[in-house]
Amino acid sequence: MPLHLLALDASSSACSAALLRQDDSGSECLVRFEMTPRAHTRRLMPMINEVLAEAQVSPTELDAVAYGRGPGSFTGLRIAAGVAQGLAFGLDCPLMGISTLEALALQAHRRYHLRHVVTALDARMGEVYAATWHCLKDVITPMSAEAVLAPEAMRLPGKETDWVGVGSGFTLWERFSTEVHLSMPQHLNDLEPRAEEMAWLGARDFTAGLGQAARLAQPVYLRNDVAWKKPA
Predict the structure, then answer these.
(1) pLDDT in the model for residue 79
(2) What sign has the CA pseudo-torsion 179, 221, 75, 134?
(3) Peptide bond into 71 cis (omega under 30)
(4) E-strand spans in the chain?
(5) The sheet that has 64-70: what strands, in order across it?
(6) pTM of the full predicted structure?
(7) Where does 30-164 have alpha helices with state H?
(8) Which pLDDT tens digit goes with each residue over 94-147?
(9) Count of Cβ atoms closer than 10 Å to residue 125 Cβ
């Protein structure tokens, strides 16, 4: 059965949109990706229009919409969720919220063939959003729950010593523990979540019947308080 799935993300300094097209002849993913700090509102809809036009696909042909549900930038997550929700409402199609950390793990696995991946995004206030993953043949299995924590509090599951850290959270490398340093011979802090991987993960969830109604779109912040409060 042919599938047209649109994915979008604005969870970090990057902004992206992707259209995944699958049919009996194979799969194709058309992508727009830009580093656009503070310009997500201005660039996201044009990106969506560009990938649809390139694919010569009408919005009414979309079977589902996926979006980066977080964790990440509070403002960016709300922008992506709002646009995705509006599209899904208007098209009466299923909506999938995709973990930014899982999408980052898939990107690292596909690009560098990594097996044990720690994804960490800078959460500000001296903390990171983090999770650990086992990756094999494009199957991403969580090894720990997503959490917001201080780098010093990060603990790695199992006894593997070939973990690779991925994401902006590793700009705080010196604050991670000696245990993490010894188990992680490499870290890459320049990868950002992308709609491309969210499209593939969205297709997985759509096929599994995990699409939701548009009204259920909900960013995942991990923090209870979305704004920093000065201590008394």
Answers:
(1) 97
(2) positive
(3) yes
(4) 3-9, 14-23, 26-35, 64-70, 95-99, 116-124, 127-136, 139-142, 147-149, 164-166, 186-188
(5) 26-35, 14-23, 3-9, 64-70, 95-99
(6) 0.94
(7) 40-55, 74-91, 100-112
(8) 999 999 999 999 999 999 999 999 999 999 999 999 999 999 999 999 999 999
(9) 10
